[in-house]
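Incident review: delayed structure delivery

Summary: a single-chain prediction request sat in the queue longer than the usual turnaround. Root cause was a stuck worker, restarted by the on-call engineer. No data loss occurred. The affected request and its eventual output are reproduced below so the record is complete for anyone auditing the incident later.

Affected input:
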Amino acid sequence: MQTDIKSFPIFLSLWNQRQGMRTPDVHFRIAHWLETLWRRGERRLLLMAFRSCGKSTLTGLFCAWLLFRQPELRILVLAADFALAKKMVRNVKRIIERHPLTAHLKPAAADQWGSDRFTVNRPLELRDPSMLARGISSNITGSRADVIICDDVEVPNTCDSAEKRRDLRERLAETAYVLVPGGLQIYVGTPHTFETIYDPQGFLEGYAALKVPVLDEAGASAWPERFSAADIERIRRTTGPNKFTSQMMLVPVNIAEGRLNPDLLRRYEGEPDYAKEMRALYVNGERAVSASAWWDPAFGGASGDASVLAVVFADEGGRYYLHRAAYLSTSSSDEDEATSQCVQVARIAKDLLLPSVALEINGLGRFLPGLLRQELGKARVPCSVREISSRRPKDLRILEAFDAVLAARVLYAHESVYATPFLTEMREWRPGASRGRDDGLDAVAGALSLEPVRLRAQGPASLPEWRAGDKQRQAKTQLEV
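Output delivered after worker restart:
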């Protein structure tokens, strides 16, 4: 049987050889599928492959191959944002420049060879370029394309609410006016919501689909050279069951089925122990390497919301210690409510040697940062205040923060946490429920989501330094008061 030197798998293999790389079987599988369906006349394709599989790179190579076969084609790349779409166009441009079969396509005129659009040497004079990058929110009215690539148009920023999902579908429907009759449209991505667009029985009804999860039905890796069983288990453990299921196994996850099981917490006792001689802080007998604190404020009991400060330590072994879920009191008669809560936060920050407190400034929290800094200054606590505005839906923030640490059994809770409403909130929490308390959950989710903050010495009033491996130093700084 004679090998077609113009086939896409051969085109792919030549490119990888030029880059000094081998072509894995999973890439040959995708390449054969793309070419076979294209030759068969299928013009609506859906490619779903696990994260880091290289599906966007393969699609870019497929675009270069299509231009090699038909230089007159016009290809439009749509992505969740312009930068992502531009990345694919730039990659295809480099392929055309360097691939042994496509160097003749590069035009002589520099103005035809841009980073977000380019036009190859072609027999026809056409208004639209050979390849064009656009974000999904941009205006594509007036454009015409023979091929439309929808590359990762569904991401958290475009689908984490019903309104965004509706808007995404409406914008994608506009491609029907851009694609010429008989044109090719390819969707490439992974599901980020239960109501995903990547559904051949739903939004993409009638599309021919290829689904490549990281594990097949027998539990074997789709790319064993790069994703061993140990690698896959590590990904499952660090990302959590929900994200692994959607992003690696390509099964849409229904957030409404989310549950938080308090039985997966590990209880511990005792307060942090600062070893002055070693300049180290120990929590539950383990050396702490970071601390994060998140304050979700609320005022006035009439609203029913609680004001909660959550404090989480992390040790060298990747374990997390929920040391405080402080439901702040508002009963002080000597101070106004806001000042009273800031005083309580400052006291906890001092007792637990916190390097910073993240303050959620949505709504009523906007005027609090200055007041909190003032109280920290009065108490001579060298703790910084980080102002954070939360934009993602609360249910998603909570589920994503708890999913991995609970599944891996690496979230510990101090005995004081068991005396708060926090565990009740865990048991009763249901995503999307209009009723139910989740103030403690929201604060702890915020603390878990923060990047580890290392404690820094801050002048003569500084708290003991306990960061692992830190060296003694002096610094002239001033507290904000």
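Verification: Residues 262-461 form a domain with the Nucleotidyltransferase; domain 5 fold (CATH 3.30.420).
Action items: add queue-age alerting; document worker restart procedure.
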